[in-house]
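Students often ask why we bother encoding 3D structure as a string. The short answer is that it lets us treat folding as translation between two languages. Here is a chain of 467 residues written in the first language.
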Amino acid sequence: MPIYEKLMGNPFVDAGVCGICEWLGRTVQPDQITKDDLERVVDEIVPIMKPFDKKRPEAHGWKNWISIFTNNHKLSNPSIKKDQRVPQFKSLLFKYIDEVEKLGQAGDCMGCGRRDANTWLTRTGVPLTGAGNCNYFPIFSEGAGYCSACAYAIQMSPLVFMATAGKFLTLHSNSWKALKSWARVCVEDVREQQLKQEIAGCYTPGYANPRNGIFYMTREMLKYGEMRPDENISMQVYCWTNYIQGPELEVFYMPAPIFKFLRIVYMGKFNKTWQEIVRCGYLVNWDKVESEDDYKNRTNRVYENLLQDISILGFFINRQHRKPRGNWELLSLYFKEVRSMEITRLEKIKQVGNLIAECIKESGSDKRLTRLERAKSYEACRTVLLYIIKERIKLGAEKPLFSLDDYMEHLFPESEDFSATPWRETRDLLLFRIYEKLHNWLQEKGFVDFDEDEDDTSDLDSESDTE
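And here it is in the second language, the structure alphabet:
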């Protein structure tokens, strides 16, 4: 049996195993790691993990070490002479290596569950473990039992942490390829620090906002293209600090449908358009923005909505200029993958949008479009569609705008909570398609720069048939 395997189940152990594999070589797999490999990692990595010394900033060093393992760790304990910290830490790791056993079928180790625990670790050895704080492991004791192999792996986990405003982001996933891709990003950064002899510590791309940082992580790990499009990959990202005066833990979850959608948009032809949509989510005055650093840590409503399972349809539409962001292919991809909307419904809404666009263009007026834009209720939206139906009859349309079945099943399907009925979603999908079909025509006619506060829909039901 090997020492490690893919996806042991513990986020800190898996992070450490990924870091070890990536350090040893891009093709190294967990079940190939030997004790000799672990000794090599100790000799190569521990010297660069020496904590940052404020009294000697020119010497560089791993920053925020006490926020990972507290100040009782071998590398940061003030009671240990500075020149003895690295040797003592190496000695501890070599002890772990000597005691490593092969994976079994079962055990009480909190890291793998495949070996019996032979060491008891507190927060000094495993972040957030022990009574009196967040207690990542819900056993409410002063520590937890680990086998030596898992204890060793956890000590290597900082290799793949992302630092963010005094805290750390740790990725966990149901996909080994996802973990390995992120480890590659982080380890390449540490190796570059080593090459330049400017050790600073965990990968730090400058994201103080952890939610924005999660999407940055996703974008970076997808650059390597190692994950298949059909893989159902989900992500859990732990934002935490083990700082002794205030340990914290917050968990973010990215479901597989969102990850799949992002993989498609980042890796394909939609990347540029998607970035435009994302930019619309920032609460920022773009006239004052000079660089990405001016906005990348601001709240982004697109990211927030995706993580909270809230629709981002509104960000696909530029109402002010009656212009779509992206095309129907991108929009339908989002609704199919993330919102689980049936293709038949999307196609029917697209068809109705096409017919409305033709009607508006033939009428030579944007009056009906304006009314649709300003519809603030299901009743108002329905009334606009009724007048569009009448308009089409006057114009000699041969086919109806939609059938009764289309209306009930695709345009306005039944909802348990009628206040949340998808009428608004349907209206905005129709607007997107109309803008996509008519934007150039609307510009030519001067029917742009719509101001939705200019009027309301209070008079929709009283429109005359001759209007």
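Translate back mentally: Residues 393 and 399 are 9 Å apart (CA to CA). Keep this in mind for the problem set.
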